[in-house]
Amino acid sequence: MTSIETRPETARGRAMYEMLLAVHAVIRRNLELIQELAAQALDGADPEELRRQLHTLKRDGMLWRLQVNCLRYCSFVHSHHNAEDADFFVELRETNPAISPGIDRLQADHRRVSDDLDAVEDAANRLAEDDGQQAREAVVETLQALRENLLAHLEYEERVIEATVRRVRELP
Questions:
Q1: What is the C-alpha to C-alpha distance for residues 129 and 2, in angstroms, rounded to an integer?
Q2: What is the CA radius of gyration of the chain?
Q3: Tens-of-pLDDT digits for all 172 residues of the chain?
Q4: What gap in Å lies between CA 42 and CA 149, rounded to an integer?
Q5: What's the pTM value of the predicted model, to 2 decimals?
Q6: Which residues have CB under 8 Å from 95's CB, separation 6+?
Q7: Do residues 127 and 25 make contact, with C-beta atoms less than 8 angstroms apart?
Q8: Alpha helix positions (H), the chain
């Protein structure tokens, strides 16, 4: 048992960890939804039909939904990671200085995932101009890289910071 684990948990810390898990669940669920849309665009839809849908039913078309969902999702994950870097991780380091190497890795993960998100955004934006097989494959490839890195990051984060988060100080 580490020294942080000998301290009592706080109500605020338990709530913060539960909120983190809830946000991570949304990230995981949305990532799966976006990948399903990408797979449908890649595997199940005729390019001419997709092009017709894009022009006539733009708001409900598969490619448009894929593009919009990817961009919203990327923005959400960027915001979540920025908030962690700016405030949350600072408080964790103050609560438990021994966690610093884990936080350093999490921040490096954030930079890698940010690059992955940018690649997904670029690929999704290209779908508006070219809905061909190569453009679709680029979306799927970038999503696979994002999924691999993001899921590994979420699992590591949940494991490494749990004891510290659960013991952050109560606010006055």
A1: 54
A2: 19
A3: 568 999 999 999 999 999 999 989 988 887 777 676 667 667 755 544 444 443 343 344 444 455 556 667 777 787 878 878 788 889 999 999 999 999 999 999 989 988 988 888 788 778 777 877 888 788 788 888 988 998 999 999 999 999 999 999 998 8
A4: 22
A5: 0.77
A6: 4, 164, 167, 168, 169
A7: no
A8: 3-6, 11-39, 47-56, 62-83, 89-95, 100-127, 133-165
